[in-house]
Structure formats: structure tokens, C-alpha cells
Amino acid sequence: MNFRVFLPAVLCLLLCAPSFAAAAEKIDFSADSMSGSIGENADYTKLTGHARIKTESLEISADSIELSGKNFRYIVASGTVDGTHSADGLAFSCGSLRYDRERKVSVFSENVHLVDSQNGVEADAQRIEYNEETGVAVMQIAVKLVQKENVCTAAFAVYRKKQQLLELSGSPQIVRGKDTFRAQEITLNLETDEITLDGRVRGTVTDSENGKNTDE
Question: Keyword Cell inner membrane: yes or no (predicted)?
Fold first, then answer.
């Protein structure tokens, strides 16, 4: 069955798709217009213009949002994407987003900005994959993460939110005040500020008493 409607008000997909009752999670949505189809094995819905959806764990607003797969398993948002992972205390903005409702995995792409308000972390990258169950975010390309006085940059990073650990590789660097640390791989404990450097270690630290720099 195909359908196309225009809806200025907030509706619930359960009202439009009886097959959605098989899913344990409800999805609320709103948009300027909606089109799609409902089938036995797969469903498809496209929301266009001021599109918004809300699940139990995720809230998204974008220029366009598509829901597809059995029980609308997959969510794809594009345009100016903003949203929150409420349970994890995360807020994000990016150019596009793919979300798997069964695996609870989000893939953010294009100028991604991620804020972890629980741990005081802000991260930027071109691609971030976040797993809600493990609390692990894998960041790629032009990674920059800021927490307290730590400014961390790398080509690749793994942020372990639950353990408050950050693993950096690909020309990694941490700048803390006037101090700079570089190595092949760097691990930062965001709770204790402990830095572990591995491979081709180098950097600069400042003597707090006389203000002199010391190269390592």
C-alpha cells in the first residue's frame, strides 16, 4: 500500500502503520509532508520539510528523514541534522545520520559535532559511529576532542564513554595548557587526566616555576 499525506501536526506512526505494533518501540514524528508504503516484509516512509522523529532513546530533526525495513528498523536523516541521545546525555549535529533501531548503533557523517554533557566532552570529526549498548564512539578523519584543558587531535579515535577513556592514533596530539604530547598512540584517562604515550614519544612541557619549555 502506498500513501502520501501532508501533515503539519505531530502524529504517531502506530496510527498510520498497523504493522508497527509488532515493534516494542513507538516512534512519534512530524513533518511538512510524508510519503511511503507499507508491506508485509518491509515498510518505507519519507518525511520531508522540518522533519522530526522521536524514539525511546533518540530524537532527531532534519530536512529529510527516511524510515525503512521491517518495523521501520532503519532511520536515515539528511540535511541539517540535529538531535539527542537522551539516556546517554549526548547531543549532536551533522550532515547525515544512519540509525539501526535493533542494534542501537548510530553513524554520523559530514562535519559531525558531538557533545557528551555527562562527561564534559565535545568532539568533532567527519564520521562517528556510536554504539548505545557499549557506550563506545569510533571517530574518524580530522578528529578533535576537547575536555577540561585537554585538546586532543588525531586521524582516528575511540572514545569509551563508560570508562572515560580516549584512544588516539594517526598523528595524535594532546595539548594541555602550554604542554604538548605526541606519539604513535596516545591514551587519555578523562577522569584522572593520566596520559599514556606509546611509540616515537615526543613533546614539550613547561616548568611552572620559571616558565621554561622542556622538549622530550
Answer: no
Under the phi-then-psi rule, with left for phi > 0, alpha for psi from -120 to 50, and beta for the rest, what region is 22? alpha
> CB neighbours of 192 closer than 8 A, spacing ≥ 6?
none
Grid cell for residue 87? 539516556
- Dihedrals φ, ψ of 57, to 5°? -120, -15
The tens digit of pLDDT for each residue in 30-69 reads 999 999 876 666 688 999 999 999 988 889 999 999 999 9
Task: Report strand pairing: 165-169 vs 173-176.
Answer: unpaired
For 28-118, CATH number out of 3.30.70.120, 2.40.50.140, 3.40.930.10, 2.60.450.10 equals: 2.60.450.10
